[in-house]
Automatic annotation (TrEMBL):
Function: May play a role in apoptosis. May act as a tumor suppressor.
Organism domain of life: Eukaryota
Entries under SMART domains matching the protein: ARF (SM00177), SAR (SM00178)
Binding site for GTP: 28-35, 79, 135-138
Family the UniProt entry places it in: Belongs to the small GTPase superfamily. Arf family.
Any one Pfam family match given in the protein's UniProt record, by short name: Arf
Range of residues in the leader sequence: none
GO MF term set: GTP binding; GTPase activity; metal ion binding
Record protein name field: ADP-ribosylation factor-like protein 11
Naturally occurring in which organism (per UniProt): Apolygus lucorum
Annotated binding of Mg(2+), by residue: 35, 52
Keywords carried by this UniProt record: GTP-binding, Lipoprotein, Magnesium, Metal-binding, Myristate, Nucleotide-binding
């Protein structure tokens, strides 16, 4: 990282250290726990929330690992069916997608899989890293991450997608900051790869 210090460098050369605020979109079906997760990341406390009509937007800071101190601007977009067509206007040019999933709600897994695939496969989101927050792990019947990978068809996303399934509980905050750190690592990796590709084509 220090190689460019002191030399004027192009904006792209300085990217892998990802200074500046990263833009992240938080999606998922209604009642998955997106807003609870957002405010737990923001204030590190549980806030009782109401269904999101439209979106919430908050700046949150990473607290762990390499993401410590990194600012993320997180857009939490409503998950009701009538709001989902709006998702694509929020994911355009985003650095990462956080897909919040109710790990207990097996009946809606297929619906979640469909929405995640539609978002990830959109040409605008090619290669954008996906963090699946497997929420509600504290509840009986919560599915394990390995099982969720299968149920969501993550291996079929293709398109150069990197993804991580992070077990979590938005109410206690467990797993959320680890998830943001994993997402940050994927964003850095993606930028590094893009830089290598660029060098190759010079």
């Amino acid at each position: 990282m220090g190689a460019n210090m002191g030399k004027p460098s192009s904006f792209l050369d300085s990217l892998p250290s990802a200074q500046g605020t990263l833009h992240v979109v938080m999606l998922g079906l209604d009642s998955a726990g997106k807003t609870t997760a957002l405010y737990r990341l923001k204030f590190d406390q549980y806030l009782n929330t109401v269904p999101t009509i439209g979106f919430n937007c908050e700046k949150v800071k990473g607290t762990l690992g390499r993401s410590k101190g990194q600012a993320f601007l997180v857009w939490d977009v409503g998950g009701q069916e009538k709001l989902r067509p709006l998702w694509k206007s929020y994911t355009r040019c985003t650095d990462g997608i956080v897909f919040v999933l109710d790990s207990v709600d097996v009946e809606r897994m297929e619906e979640a899989k469909m929405e995640l695939a539609r978002t990830a496969r959109s040409p605008d989101n090619a290669g954008v890293p996906v963090l699946v927050v497997a929420n509600k792990q504290d509840l009986p019947g919560a599915k394990e991450p390995k099982e969720l990978e299968k149920l969501l068809g993550l291996h079929e996303l293709g398109n150069g997608h990197m993804w991580v399934v992070q077990p979590s509980c938005a109410i206690t905050g467990e797993g959320l900051f680890e998830g943001m750190d994993a997402l940050y690592e994927m964003i850095l990796k993606r930028r590094k790869l893009a830089k290598q590709v660029k060098k190759k084509h010079r």
